[in-house]
Structures are given as structure tokens and as C-alpha cells.
Design a protein that fits this description.
seven-stranded parallel β-sheet; alpha/beta; 17% strand; 13 strands
């Protein structure tokens, strides 16, 4: 098949660690390995795209922001840029479709990518993220646009179980859960060298309110009082960067928390292989890609009971679950992991090895290809009957 993947998240470099770009690139790689011809359309991010296995087409829109959700719809300049993304993407996609004689489109995600796809007349499937549904209230006509895009789509995927239900309520149609995950260089990357006399906790993600990194630091204050040999490795960046770095430099956190920047795939792999527990303290979440990363590296998790996360962790027995926005409960779970007995990695090894089979980019890409092939057949039958 001749396919186009439309996305706002395609990485400019192979090692780029911002947003879901690495996952999108992995899906593209898997589609190529299945024998399909793939082109990508994404907004220009202000620097050349290197290391892509397929042709990438970009268009200018008046900005270079890599994470489009950071644009403020209430700011006139950002509002204008959003309009340029929506309209510019439609024009650019029509040109690319004609150029490569595309047969179908995989839109990652509903906005803006699905909006572009809906303007072409070609069959398309949309893969929705939580931000497509939970964040649409920020935008003028956001709900109406998303509903229109998803109702016109030939098929809809969602990267979470609860998200699929939300999509169904919004659109009146079924949405299929399909796990978002990426391929990490597990075999080729050695584990980070960390002191063996400490229990190592790990956080990798955006430093914003939704991800709960502030709650994690509150919990660490409690943990370090009770279990001094614990060390937290904090990777990321974002809107809370200044207060997070300041907080981590104060009191006992200064010695118990090590702060880094964003983790590229190799760094994430090295620390996921070395650390004892991955902490996911989110206030709002579906199933983050970092969870499937942890499965690949055999790292158990402590996660908050939000979205699908708690249900998935409990169902597969891959770690502990605690209530969201509760630093005391989070601290208690971390202390349980740090208590005597087998190291957490050994304790949860069997469950992790079973769960990882459900989170494979090859599996997700094959399902996308199957659906797109069906949409092409349906379109051809419809055209032949006219």
C-alpha cells in the first residue's frame, strides 16, 4: 500500500525524546518492514529532520514549537499559528497525496493530523491520544472539530481503554484500544552504572501538573525520612522546570534526588535497566509510552490509579498502584518497594515478561495496516459500483 502518516509529533532526530515522536517513528519503521510505501507529513519544527527511514514532507506555519500543546489558544499570536497549522496542513497533505499517489492515510492524532486527512477524500484511520479528547475544551470549536474528524474517519483507534470509551461517547461510534509503544535499544544498551547499596527510583516524563512530578517530590520527602538509602533519578523538563529544580535542591532532597534533562532513548533504556522501580505519579493519564518502555527493560512500576494505568498495572501484576494526588499514599508504596526481601526487579520479573508481549510496535503497526487495507478495498468497491 502507498500510505501517508500525518502527525504533529514526528522527531527531528533519531534520539529526540520530546512528546510521542519516537513512538510515531517506530510505527513508520514497522509499516515499512511490512512492505508498505510510507511518506510522512508533519509541521516544520525549525530544523532539518535527520535519520528518518522514509521521506518526510514539512510545511511552514509561522512557528517552530516542537510540542504544539504548549501553544496557548487564548494568545492571539498562538491562535493564528494554530489556524495556520490546520489550514496549511490540509493544503500540504493534498499536494503530497497527489505527488505519491497515496491510497490511505494514518492520522496520528485527531488534531491537527486527522483534520488534514479529513480534507483529502482518501480513506483514513485516526489514532487518538488523551490530549485529543481531554484537552479539546481549551480550543474554540474544539469538540465540534474532533467529533467531525472522528465521525468521518474510516476507523478510530485510541491509546487507552477509558479513552476509547470517551471517544465512543463523543462520536457515537466504536473506538478500538491500540497500545502506543516504542522500540528501545534494549539489547545494545548497557545498564547505567549505579551504586548497589541504594534502591534506585526513576521518573522520566514532562514536568507539568498532569504528570504529578511535584507530588513525587513531596512523597520523596517522606520516603527519605523512613528509608534513607533510596535515590530518585529525575529526567525531564517542562513548564514546572524552575520550581522542580529548586525543590529538588533543598533539604534532604538535595542528596536523595538527582536531576537530569530529557532522556533520549538510549539514556532511558540505560536507566530503566539499572533502576529498581519506575514511578508514574500522574494526575491525568491514559497508558503512557514510558510504561511499555519499563516492561521492555524489566522494570516494575509504582503508578497512580488514573485512566487505564491502575487497571493495567493491577491486571498484569507489574507493580503497585496508589491513589492520585496523595503524596502519603505514594510514599507508602515506594517504601513497600524499598522494604526488605527480594529486589523489586526479581519480585516482578515473571509478570513483566508476560505483560510486555501486549505492548509491541510491530503488533500495533500490523493492526493499522490491516485496517487501512480494508478501508482501501471498501473505497474501491464503492467507486466501482458508481
Amino acid at each position: 500500500m502507498r500510505l501517508i502518516v500525518t502527525t504533529s509529533s514526528y522527531p527531528t532526530r533519531v534520539d529526540e525524546a520530546i512528546n510521542a515522536g519516537g513512538f510515531v517513528r517506530d510505527i513508520v519503521v514497522q509499516l515499512v518492514q511490512l512492505g508498505h510505501s510510507v511518506n510522512v507529513l508533519t509541521p516544520d519544527k525549525g530544523e532539518p529532520i535527520t535519520g528518518s527511514p522514509v521521506p518526510v514532507h514539512t510545511f511552514r506555519w509561522g512557528g517552530v514549537e516542537r510540542v504544539l500543546t504548549r501553544l496557548n489558544p487564548r494568545h492571539p499570536a498562538d491562535s493564528l499559528r494554530m489556524a495556520c497549522i490546520m489550514l496549511g496542513g490540509c493544503c500540504a497533505l493534498k499536494r503530497v497525496c497527489a505527488q505519491v499517489q497515496a491510497e490511505a492515510i494514518l492520522a496520528m492524532w485527531a488534531v491537527p493530523s486527522g483534520y488534514w486527512a479529513s480534507s483529502t477524500g482518501l480513506p483514513y484511520a485516526v489514532w487518538t491520544l488523551g490530549s485529543d479528547i481531554w484537552g479539546i475544551g481549551r480550543y474554540l470549536w474544539g469538540k465540534a472539530i474532533v467529533r467531525r474528524v472522528l465521525r468521518r474517519a474510516g476507523y478510530v483507534f485510541s491509546d487507552g481503554l477509558h479513552l476509547a470509551d470517551e471517544v465512543s461517547r463523543l462520536t457515537g461510534r466504536r473506538s478500538e484500544f491500540l497500545a502506543s509503544c516504542r522500540t528501545l535499544p534494549v539489547e545494545s544498551t548497557p545498564a547505567a552504572q549505579l551504586p548497589e547499596n541504594r534502591l534506585h527510583l526513576l521518573f522520566i516524563g514532562r514536568w507539568d501538573r498532569a504528570k504529578g512530578v511535584d507530588i513525587l517530590l513531596e512523597a520523596m520527602e517522606i520516603v527519605l525520612q523512613r528509608v534513607p538509602h533510596v535515590q530518585l533519578h529525575l529526567f525531564g523538563g517542562g513548564s514546572l522546570e524552575k520550581p522542580i529544580r529548586w525543590r529538588a535542591s533543598q533539604g534532604r532532597l538535595r542528596d536523595g534526588v538527582t536531576v537530569y534533562g530529557f532522556a533520549d532513548p538510549a539514556t532511558a533504556t540505560a536507566y530503566l535497566k539499572a533502576c529498581d522501580v519506575l514511578v508514574i505519579p500522574s494526575r491525568l493519564e491514559s497508558i503512557p509510552v514510558i510504561y511499555s518502555d519499563a516492561l521492555q527493560c524489566g522494570c516494575p512500576v509504582v503508578a497512580t490509579d488514573v485512566g487505564d494505568l491502575g487497571q493495567i498495572v493491577r491486571q498484569h501484576g507489574t507493580g503497585l498502584v496508589c491513589p492520585p494526588e496523595d503524596s502519603d499514599a505514594l510514599a507508602e508504596s515506594l517504601c513497600v518497594m524499598a522494604s526488605g526481601g527480594p529486589r523489586p526487579r526479581a519480585q516482578y520479573a515473571e509478570a513483566l515478561s508476560h505483560a510486555v508481549r501486549l505492548f509491541q510496535p510491530s503488533r500495533s503497526a500490523a493492526r493499522c495496516a490491516e485496517v487501512l487495507a480494508q478501508l482501501i478495498v471498501m473505497r474501491n468497491k464503492s467507486n466501482s459500483s458508481i
